[in-house]
Amino acid sequence: MRLKYVFLFVFLAAANSITAQQKEITLKEIWGGTFRTQGMDVLRSLNNGKQYTVLNRSAGSVDKYDYETLEKVETIVKASDLSEISSFSSYSFSDDESKLILATKVEPVFRRSRLGIYYVYDIASKKAIKISNNKIQEPTFSPDGKKVAYVYENNIYVKKLSSGTTTKITNDGVKNKIINGVTDWVYEEEFGFVRAFQWNAASDHIAFIRFDETEVPEFSMDVYGSELYPQQHVFKYPKAGEKNAEVSLHLHNLNAGKTSEINLGNYTDFYIPRIKWTNNPVVLSVQVINRHQNELDLILYNAATNQANVVLKETDKAYVDITDNLTFLADNSFIWTSEKDGFNHIYHYKKDGTLINQVTKGPWEVTAYYGYNEKDDIIYYQSVENGSINRDVYAIKINGKKKKRLSTKEGTNGANFSSNFTYYISSFSSATTPNEYALHLAKNGKLVKEIKNNADVKEKLGNYTMSTKEFFTLTTAKGNELNAWMLKPANFDASKKYPVFMYQYSGPGSQQVANRWNSSNDYWFQMLAQKGIIIVCVDGRGTGFKGADFKKVTYKELGKYEVEDQIDAAIELGKRSYVDKDRIGIWGWSYGGFMSSNCILKGNDVFSMAIAVAPVTSWRYYDTIYTERYMQTPQENASGYDDNSPINHVEKLKGDYLLVHGSADDNVHVQNTMRMIDALIKANKQFDWLIYPDKNHGIYGGYTRLHLYTKMTNFIDNTLLKK
């Protein structure tokens, strides 16, 4: 589902004494960028490990910087110096860093997919060559830098840069029927990738996934626009229990000009969530997972012998998560992450799948794998060893010894390593410290130089009335210990009673209670707090970074235990002397909207109001990969789907309910809200609702966000504050 992309809202500001001169935060300031922090531009470490490049959007250039001095060394390419390109929005290097692919006139397809006009820029000659006159997808250099493969209208093409000739290597691509080399909607959304072809190291073979979505049901959306007649957007969308695209894996031999299908074995109704060539140019790794997603095979396919062997099997009583952590070492042994001991950890295997050792161990989770320094035999990773709401950066020998914590500050620490692991650029923030960036030595974490600290944002916030975020553990009557934070009004008086407004997302593996700096929503929470509302966020069971058992307890019962925890948390909060238990509200977006809807219905004696933005109202309306991962199919688990879907509990509505959706949401379709509205009307229940024309799952653009948050603020004023 990956709905959590919309907002991961966690934040707080530094405590400040209140003076008569302090200002109140406004919605226009929040959505006008007044409190926006500066980040680090996305950088690419160069092969020498001493320098990196950055896309300078304002100057329209790709610039080279030195790690040690952090000074600009040179400008590699500038759009104003090119007659062919007026501007470019992204770039990628060939393996030898002699050429770049520059992206122009890019337009979105879905969440991650893009169409655009692309050029190959030769650094030595300073010339740019257009790859195709058409808008194409996923242009990618061959490892030798002599060719570019790309997808156009669902077919794969290869362009030879020396001659300029282009070869079409697939011919059966048809919209809404056959796709070669890029993913269908559901793979893109739920497995998180678009390019479904891979060059081998010798640049003479391309492996690719083919999608036959002929029998996948279509979904259509009206796009109203400004024309007299609306347009209709039609695309393939497999809903839970329905037909998926049939996938197959193919290999194109560029020297022979032939394509063959790879026989992976006797699999039926399966997914191929990842393909990746090993360091051996004839050996391809393939991950195959069953439709229930609880059995995953890692297959090594030898193109020379046409043999496919399963070298590793992952099984789970619930589901196996897909990651990009698979790393092949020089000897083709590999690094892999797994939850098989109950927590996500790093493992090292021989090339035949024999376990060498478990690298990390303990009752905590590895949250990011950064890479392997082969020279020093060190793995770098991020984990929650210092508490599940924090993140730290560590180094450890591949044999699991000599572990060292590189980060020193308590909060959320991350790292971006140079290609040879000499340096890393750290990122840090906490509930009281805005985003900071600094250069460190990778061998010991020693600070080399500070880069950016956003101190000006913290100083600016000193002019506003702010509250301090209080982290705590909330224990429910059932004994469940849940991470939580609370935001009280700055002039809090324990002798008074305050309404409570709860925020959550609650989706499997997610986290909202984290020790990090703010996003836009947290300023809204500050604004609401100063109106006299206590804001509370609770991560219930099913959320992440506390072990597999805590996360996977919701398996086959989405919306049962998470909803219980929010209701139980609200009951516990209502016992506090300063809380008005008759004025407790809850809100959420996407999965969070599914939750808030369930809470106002199943917890109708606890919650007096709820806001649901872009909610799932029945899991029968959502896609196969996400929904079935956690629920199996509706044919197998009808009660799990229906017992916990808000649409089936509308008769329980007592409180105030606001329902919001974008009409062009290709992810959680507006159908969810329309069916919910119909059910509420049939039950003769009064509610408020708002549809944003032509807006997708994020509901943004123009003044949309300002309008939405004004609507929600007014709704809160008229419910929690006026009762």
Question: Would you give an account of this structure?
Answer:
This protein has 723 residues and is mainly β. Among the domains are: 3-36 and 458-719, Alpha/Beta hydrolase fold, catalytic domain (Rossmann fold, 3-Layer(aba) Sandwich), CATH 3.40.50; 333-453, 6 Propeller (Neuraminidase). Helix content is 14%, strand content 36%. It is built from eleven helices and 43 strands. The strands form ten sheets. Strands 36-37-39-38-40-41-42-43 form an eight-stranded mixed β-sheet, with helices on both faces. Strands 13, 14, 15, 18 and 19 form a five-stranded antiparallel β-sheet that branches. A four-stranded antiparallel β-sheet has the order 1-2-3-4, with no helix packed on it. Strand 16 and strand 17 form a beta hairpin. Helix 6 crosses helix 7 (591-602). It starts with 26 loop residues before the first helix and ends with a helix.
Calculate the mean pLDDT score and round it.
95
Rg, please? 26 Å
Strand order of the largest sheet: 36-37-39-38-40-41-42-43
- How would you classify the helix and strand content by structural class? mainly beta
Supply the CATH class of one domain. Answer: Alpha Beta
Topology, number of strands: 43
| CATH H-level superfamily title of one domain | Alpha/Beta hydrolase fold, catalytic domain
Question: How many helices does DSSP assign?
Answer: 11
CATH topology annotation of one domain: Rossmann fold
- Fraction of residues in helix: 10-25%
Strand content: 35-45%
Uncertain ranges: 2-20
- Main sheet: strands, sense, barrel: 8 strands, mixed
Shape: globular
> What CATH architecture of one domain would you give?
3-Layer(aba) Sandwich
Q: Report the span from N to C terminus.
A: 37 Å
